[in-house]
Amino acid sequence: MEKIMSEYTKVQRELIHLLHDAQSKFGYIPAQMISQISRELKISESEIFGVLTFYKAFTLKPRGEHLITICMGTACHVRGAPMILDEFERKLGIKAGETSEDNQFTLETVNCVGACALGPIAIADGDYHGQMKTREVDEIIKKLKQEKRKSSE
Amino acid sequence: MKVTIDGKKIEVEGKRTILEVAREKGIYIPSLCDHPRLTPFGGCRLCIVEIKEKGGYPPSCSTYVENGMEIKTRTPRLQNLRKEILELILSEHPNACLICSEKENCDEYKSTIRKVGEVTGCVLCSNNGRCELQDVVETLKIDKVRFPSVYRNLEVKKGDPFFDRDYNLCILCGRCVRVCQELRGAAAVSFIYRGSQAVVGTVLDLPLLESGCQFCGACVDVCPTGSLAERGIRYEDLPDERAKTICPFCSMGCELEIDLKKQKILSSKPSDEGAVNQGQACVRGRFLIKDVVHSPRRILMPLIRLNKELEEVSWEEALDFVAQKLKKFKGKNIALIASPHISCEENFLLRKFASEELKTENVDSSYRFSPLPRIDEMARENGFELNLNFEFKDISKAKTLFLTGEDIPKSHPIMWLEVLKAVQQGAKLIVASPTELSLNRYSSLWLQIKPGTEFYLFSFLSKLFFHEEQETKNPGIEGFDSFKDSLGEFDLSRVFEMTGITREELDEAFVLLREAEDAAFLFGTGLTQHPWGTQNVAALWNLALQAQAKIFPLGLENNLRGVSEIGHNSSDKGLNFNQILQAASSGELKALYLAGPVPYLKKANLEFLVIQDSFVNENFELADAVLPASTFAETDGTFINGEGRLQRFKRVIDPLGDAKPDWWIISQLARRMGSIGFPFKNPSEITKQMIKVIPGFSNISYADLEKGHKVFAQKKMKKEKSFLPVRHIDLNHNKSKKYPFLMILEYSLDYYRSLALSQENKGLKAIRDSRWIKVSPEDTEKLNLEQGERIVVESSSGKFKGFVKIDKSLPKGVLGASFLLSEDSEFSVNGLIPSVFQELHSLGMIPVKIKREK
Ligand code: SF4
Ligand code: SF4
Ligand code: SF4
Ligand code: FES
Ligand code: FES
Predict the structure, then answer these.
(1) Would you state the pLDDT for residue A153?
(2) Within a domain: residue B157?
């Protein structure tokens, strides 16, 4: 049994290693990679999928130009983070974890970023927005879009 | 060691969890994620206990007892904590009904309003009250949930065969994930995402059909909630009766529990007490029993042909008609086909009937396709008899396993579970197979062998054994020198090219076998279905002796061993199965009695044909009389499974319509033909006579059998094992310009009597349609074929039809199809070979071409 356990953790480590490689090479984990890794490491595709969706570091699609992360930690949650997330989802037309069709926005959630006193928190391209209100969502999106315009000018 | 639980002193041996010990002593500890057959998970925390001098509240399901432990399971503090934990769980589960104050008065409404898409309370849940969540709510007396309720609003997954998955009801206990991974080795489902998003799911959220699911239903059976719900009973009422039977679909012989309502089968489940299967089954036993027994293709009235058409008549009339006619055909004029799907008793009567009434030796069944008679035959030809008995559970003890010629998770599901256990305990698995199998994931070595060349693989490995031990001493087994000499004449220089296996791989296989202690060789029809099948088996046999391995021939139909014990045609005086079919068309035979399925007898040239079967089939158009037989569910009897174990099965429902059990039909006919040798009033009387007469049963006591004790057919073991000389075989199955593909045929067990299961059942059809022709993705692209497209496969001597199924596991240039005895002629691979039965085992690999159907 112990032998199996150590085998198991070895496989887990290798798996995470391979996923990291793929993520940094492609910017995401392409679906065919999953079957390839499954053959190589001899674990099922669903198990691999379980691991890869567990870690925020891995994505299944290329991330968009702008990354918006909503904190869903307990403190933010009770202060209305779900409403903020809803609003972002509605405005961007995508669900958490997805990227908009034009590849502009990726919306993600995270558990507690350590700024609980300021909750609810949204992080837009690295900028922290504390005590978010739903009506500020639009502004943030607009600002990000303008930045894009600037950069493309 | 000694422990106390709730003041009770308990003696414990071995490494056991507190929960296990408590359960055994009848001390109830609430639990949800734990399951006796799965590894502890410690997820739900309901099973917490207090242990004196240890802090905290450890979960009893994953805490092992230690000497002197004083454990308390129901202190007020624990009960309060449990309540809180359960309320948390309930806050994410539709809970209105669970805490409803009208609960007691509500029962009668439950059965009427269940037809909804969204389950928002127990009254709408297809779990029908058989819910472990309800049970713990009941015991912990929960009447409110102090946390805000969340309905996750996840899409209910209804796209797969047999069961729906509504993860809105899921409590994330992980039982399904564990059973799928630990017990079934499929790992089709897993926990995906994390935190509040965490859910059970498949890779990329694909349907189970594309995630390696075996559709065994094990997850449905362990799910404590209604998340996983069998669709077939969703809108059915609760059963009013439960009965046990033995599954008739393969040689594992799983014990099943059948739920009934008003004499109709609602569903079937593997029985936890099943000696062989212990709570496990496969898709066929779990989901197909009801559809087969209650199939619309059942024949429920006797039919006879007086003029042009078959007409429904009474039993009286039909039996008189057949008895009168049969009297005219005796001896060489007539033949009888028996069946591996009916009981030993019924096969015994068929044999008795043939010899006493029809006075013929021409009795046989299709059983010769199987590895079992092949190895038996091989042994007999060489003057020794084999012990064919073993127990499936022996396989789990092997340290090295060598598997050829079968995809066993599909064909031998329960044996697979034992192989998996062995691998989980560190055994090495060598797989030789032309296609990539799902079980390769568990192998240490996969030899991708060119179809049909196993003989060379085994012989080469044998040579390596000789090489290794230069001055090889005879291990004291007979035939050693002649085997060595026969092998010496072999030119094995082309072995790599022939088999497609590299020298390195062969060396690796050899090292694994040489180092092996307790090796087990499992082999299936992939070896025996070639004309040189016996040579394949002999080569494997020799190798097994060298590696000191046990050999496990894989059985096929459920009562094949029974058929072989009864010994139809054992004298070899009469015609065998294929000779009977040939004689039926050549006119050599005048009459034929079919109690077992045969392919379409288009060219038959007979004066009289009787069919005794449960289902309508193509041969009806040639029949003069059809006698409607009941299925296994409607009678009592004995089956012998692949281990050699005799298993009694009892009637579950009354015969449908006017159908009658096979034993009744034969006895009646015999009596009407004037016999006094068939006075049987019930199958038990036949059993008693049978065990007296049949040599393989001479050690059996009727009482033991009746009581369900462990009973095996007698072991055969006349002479010590001996090596066998091998003959060089010429493999002459090359692709040509004209026929650029090789077709691998797989013997399929997806039939029962003359019913093709995948044609009967939509679910099985979606998983594996017997009419699929599997094509590699490369070839599909090259030929511009589409999934599901109808194509024709043609060989130099015939053709058949099927539907394209793109299959990643096939190498290019190779096609796959299944040989199903009960397939309709148009779709049967029978069409490909002049006569499958003539060259009995030439189902191996056939050069073919394909084209679109016009
Ligand atoms: S049906 Fe069997 S193989 Fe499929 S997910 Fe459930 S346990 Fe796994
Ligand atoms: S689906 Fe059922 S068995 Fe699986 S985790 Fe959910 S509740 Fe448990
Ligand atoms: S078909 Fe075989 S493995 Fe499946 S349930 Fe029946 S006896 Fe068991
Ligand atoms: S049963 Fe022990 S934690 Fe769930
Ligand atoms: S009754 Fe529906 S989940 Fe338990």
Answers:
(1) 42
(2) no
What residue ranges in B387-542 does DSSP mark as E strands?
A: 400-404, 428-432, 445-447, 519-523
Closest C-alpha among B810, B825, B820 to residue B775: B810
The pair of three-digit structure tokens given for residue B11, joined into one six-digit string: 């003696």
Where is average pLDDT lowest: B141-155, B190-204, B752-766? B141-155
Ramachandran bin of B519, using left for φ above 0, alpha for ψ from -120 to 50, beta for the remaining angles: beta
pLDDT 10s digits, B468-519: 765 455 567 788 888 888 888 777 788 898 899 999 999 999 999 999 889 9
Q: Which residues contact B298 (CB under 8 A, 6 or more apart)?
A: B614, B615, B616, B628, B631, B656, B657, B659
Cα B155 to ligand 4 centroid, rounded to whole Å? 27
Interchain contact, B201 vs A49, CB within 8 Å:
yes
pLDDT of the residue at B451: 81
Q: For residue range B658-704, what is the model confidence (pLDDT) as tens digits?
A: 999 999 999 999 999 999 999 999 999 999 999 999 999 999 999 99
**Strand partners of residue A125:** none
Task: Assess whether the C-beta atom of B773 lies below 6 angstroms from ligand 2.
Answer: no
Please provide residue A28's backbone torsions phi and psi, each rounded to the nearest 5 degrees: -165, 180
- Give the CB-side neighbour count of residue B710, counting CA atoms within 13 A: 7
CA distances from B325 to A119, B304, B321, B635, B673 (A): 92, 12, 6, 27, 10
Q: Where are the domains of chain A?
A: 2-54, 66-152
For residue B167, the SS3 value is helix
Task: Please choose from B34, B37, B49, B82 the residue to mutate so as to test ligand 4's pocket, defined by most ligand atoms within 8 A of CB.
Answer: B34
Tens digits of residue pLDDT in B364-415: 987 666 777 778 777 777 777 777 889 999 999 999 999 999 999 999 999 9
SS3 B452: coil
B694: left (phi over 0), alpha (psi -120 to 50) or beta: beta
Residue B431 has pLDDT above 80, yes or no: yes
What is the number of structural domains in chain B?
5
Assigned domain for B167 exists: no
Q: What residue numbers bound the domain in which B548 lies?
A: 371-553
Pairing of strands B625-628, B400-404: unpaired
Secondary structure (3-state) at B510: helix
Q: Which of B286, B170, B167 is nearest to B218 (CA)?
A: B286
* Distance in Å, CA B255 to ligand 3 centroid: 9
Question: Would you list the DSSP string of B12-45?
Answer: --SS-BHHHHHHHTT-----SS--TTS-----S-
Residues of chain B in contact with residue A76, where contact means CB-CB under 8 angstroms, are none
ipTM: 0.89
B25 in Cβ contact with B70 (< 8 Å):
no
Q: Are residues B694 and B630 in the same domain?
A: yes
Tokens matching residue B581:
């079919």
At B746, list the tokens: 């797989």
Q: CB of B363 within 8 A of CB of B371?
A: no
B interface residues, A as partner, C-beta within 8 Å: 181, 186-197, 201-204, 211-212, 424, 426, 440-442
Convert the pLDDT of each residue in B822-842 to its tens digit.
899 899 887 776 554 554 445
Q: Are B740 and B813 in contact (CB under 8 A)?
A: yes
pTM of the model: 0.90
Strands B428-432 and B519-523 come out as unpaired
Listed range (B107-116, B149-158, B773-782, B820-829) with the worst mean pLDDT: B107-116
What does the mean pLDDT of chain B come to? 90
B280 and B413 belong to one structural domain: no
pLDDT interval class at B418 (50, 70, 90): very high
List the B608-613 sheet strands across, edge first: B310-312, B303-305, B625-628, B608-613, B591-594, B334-337, B363-364
Residue B171 reports pLDDT greater than 80:
yes
The domain defined by A66-152 carries CATH number 3.40.30.10: yes
